[in-house]
Write a structure and sequence with these properties.
1 helix, 40% strand, alpha+beta, globular, 23% helix, 155 residues, single chain, 8-stranded antiparallel β-sheet
Length: 155
Amino acid sequence: MVWSARRSLMLLSAALLATVLAGCARDEGVSEARGDDRPEGGLAPLSEAFEGVWAGVLPCADCEGIDVELELQREGGAAGRYRLVETYLGAADAVGFEVAGEWREDACRVGEIAGSCLVLLESGQRWFRHADGSLQAVDAEGRALDVEGARLQRR
């Protein structure tokens, strides 16, 4: 009788262990699937509480360049807010524009590189996030607006 109880306990323990291990294997699959949601290149989405400034001079067809400053912020899951200041250099009157509004982050591609884009809702601009943290202006089809590859760098 003792032998039978011991054997039943061992079988029950083995079944329980098999169930736990099977559950772990399923959990690993789930986390791998979640990892596939991240864009290729490994950049995670910007955090729910985020603040940052990017700046640089982009090429201009009829001026010396466009001095660009992009400030992004988001607090605890609220809609992201941005302020974009563009100043056209080299003109007698350095013409500047400022726009502010909301932004979101979307999955996108630039050529063969998958990643994420910051979309400025009011201006319609899209900025691709590169692995080095820089931002590159792209159109809706993922083509770089500057063929030379000029980018904004994080300050």
